[in-house]
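Support request, priority: normal
Reporter: lab tech (M.K.)
Component: structure prediction queue

Hi team, I submitted a job for AAA family ATPase from Streptomyces wedmorensis yesterday, and the status page still shows it as pending. I've pasted the exact input below so you can check whether something in the sequence is tripping the parser. The sequence length should be 494 residues. Please let me know if I need to resubmit or if it's stuck on your end.
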Amino acid sequence: MTTGLSPEGTHTATAALGTLIRGHRLRIGLTQRELADLSTISVRAIRDLEKGKALRPRADTIRLIADGLRLGPRARTALEESVSRGHQGGAGRHLLTERCAPPVPLHPLIGREAEAAILAEELRSGAERLVTVVGLSGVGKTRLALEAAARLYESGFPVLWHTAPDAVTDCLPAADEDPLADLVADCAAYLQGAGAAPTAPAHGRRPGSAAPAPALTALAGSASDELPPVALAAALGDREALLVLDGVDTARLDFARLTRLRRELPGLRLLLTADTPWNVPGERLFLLAPLDAPLPADPADPGAGADAPAVRFLLARLRRVRPELLPDEQTTAHAAWIAHRLDGHPLALAAAASWLSVCDLPTLRGIVETDPAAVLDHLADGHSGSRLRDRVARTLGALPPEQRDLLTALCAAQDTPAPDFGLDDVVRLTGRTLPDGGRMVRALLIGGVIRPSTDHGRSGFRVPCVVRAALAPADGTGATAAEAPAAVAPAPAA
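Reply from support: The job had stalled in the queue. We restarted it manually and it finished. Here are the results:
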């Protein structure tokens, strides 16, 4: 059994004290004033600690701050260890550790506890050094990466986070003056085959950011045109660290440069969120399906589905729109039915919840029953809702014709009372051999355009609602969003 590394006696336990305090404070949503009230420590003292001006506070001060942050035993130990070890390194390294926290998520994590625990443990232990989280757009890849990064940060890992320019964010943006953003952007550009010289184009830097911060240039101890592995190696030393590339296009990544990065930084872990896998040696493919949304409960027990992850997620979003909504049996029954009808897709559930501002829950259920595609547009931000269907349509358009044909045939079959399908159904519809059918199912799972289902007592699959909506005619002319044919052609005879 793989276990996490102990923080004692490792470089990961030497993160700057201010970084740990600030990270814990932001994770639970406290201001410096609120932490001061809870810990009975002055605001100025907390501010000095977070800025690194006070590196050796008294033990009682750390104890009171840990109490105010409600830290568990492991996090408390890491905080105390950072004090006993003191401040290490020069100004540049201090700058790195003070800026190495992951972004702050916009929403709490619901229904992904098992996935987050597995992902964080694999990265923390070093069992996996390259993990790519793949899944359909809006399924929650970024939120899962944020949680895994936060857990590694709590155990002492510096976290370097880069979001692709066209990615949909699920977190608060970094501060504009954050000098580490340039180093991380240069590293991301390096992995995509672009140079990092300051005289070259900005390669993903923020507008107006022309060159790396002077402190980081000094930290690298090298000429300004040296490649990011040199700067990272100088900044990190032999420390373990996590680099996250959120929303990256894996087709643009350079495996040879990854090899160099991993060779020169043996403690570095790389976490990607992407629509497609990289398909390189050593990659751990982490498939992220929609939230579990089982069949609605028996009418005799309408509240039985309240613990399902998709139902909990939907109820939380419904109450953001209607805080007075009580999670009684009737409300839970409606939520369970909607969650199942929308296949537990998080962004689809969030969009559906926004409709509670213009209708009640029974009416929303009726809309979903009649035309579930109608509620995929978020009322508070229709542009965001439209992008969801556009992104799904682009995913479908990139599939090989035989896979789109199969999806169309499966959608027609899902109009029957038993919407799930199995591998035998794929073989029957396509006329292909069992191994070929298995490869098609795996490819569709990796693309996120089908999801696992056990509603009917067997291992099966289902085409999610958002995919069916993208495949359906959009304007009554017969054209679909993905231009998918309506029949599946059997495999040609050998």
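The mean pLDDT is 78. Residues 104 and 172 are 5 Å apart (CA to CA). Let us know if anything else looks off. Ticket resolved.
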